[in-house]
Amino acid sequence: MITCERCQTENVDGAQYCDECGLPLSAAGSARAEGRTPILQMLSKPVTLVGDAAAAAAAASAATSSEVISPDAPTKHDGGGDTATPVVISDAASALRASAASRTASAATSSRGGTSGGNSSAHVAHAALVINRGRSAGKEFPVHEDEAYIGRWDADSGIFPDVDLDSDDPEAKVSRRHARITRRGGQYYIEDLGSTNGTFINRGRRLLPGDRQPLNDGDEIIIGKTFLRFHVMQ
């Protein structure tokens, strides 16, 4: 039955007008007769959003609310138990930033296996070459990998040596692929790669191409006409 809102007369289900006063019967009454939930009642019910959906909703409501609570915002304890109170963010943009920062920190912790130290040793130089003569004396070239190529940078040929002597070799005596330093089991070696003007250790004989020779801390290396000093860092 549908009750008229004006005269309270009971009308049969599906009736569009009141039999007593002729008033159009409400859509809400028809919806109840059909077992549906009125749309206003649905909109009045609270909806819980989580994660990115909550952050998006916070941004959308920024025009009507001066304070929002980020779904990923940090919490603070009042010292009276285990109940945590969300920290109020002053605006929706801050809430979004807090959410993104929380996800970034979580991803970083996960990638480090849950530790705070991480593994940064992969980019620490273990040796270095230092120019010890000429206008570039004192210039240092750190060695990070177990293989380091010495030569001159040449973009056209796709040659990008680890130790680039292009700006320190005005007479172009250094070949593009001149020499290579390798580390094997803690021991260093150097070999010439078929250079035009040769590679020398401690002013000894010229190295034959592919002739790998031991290299020790403090050794002098002559590449073309560039004088270098080799140093072990670790």
Structural class: alpha+beta
Please give the radius of gyration in angstroms: 39 Å
- What's the count of strands? 16
Return residue spans where pLDDT drops below 50 for at least 5 consecutive residues: 36-45, 63-90, 104-121
Spatially, the strands of the biggest sheet line up as 8-7-16-15-13
What is the 3D shape? Answer: rod-shaped
**Mean pLDDT value:** 73
Listing every helix as H and every strand as E from the N terminus to the C terminus, the arrangement reads EEHHHEEEEHEEEEEEEEEE
Helix content: 10-25%
Number of alpha- plus pi-helical segments? 4
Q: Beta fraction of the residues?
A: 25-35%
First and last CA, distance: 90 Å
Largest sheet entry: 5 strands, antiparallel
Describe the structure.
Helix 3 (51-60) packs antiparallel against helix 4 (92-111). The chain is built from four helices and 16 strands. Residues 36-45, 63-90 and 104-121 have low confidence and may be disordered. The protein has a five-stranded antiparallel beta sheet with strand order 8-7-16-15-13, with no helix packed on it. A five-stranded mixed beta sheet has the order 10-9-11-12-14, with no helix packed on it. The chain has a two-stranded antiparallel sheet with strand order 1-2. 18% of the residues lie in helices and 26% in strands. It has helices at residues 27-33, 39-44, 51-60, 92-111; strands spanning 2-3, 10-11, 68-69, 75-77, 84-86, 88-89, 127-131, 140-143, 147-151, 163-164, 177-184, 187-192, 199-201, 213-215, 220-223, 226-232. With 234 residues, the chain is an alpha+beta fold. The longest helix is centred in the middle third of the chain and has 20 residues, at 92-111. A hairpin with a 6-residue loop joins strand 1 (2-3) and strand 2 (10-11).
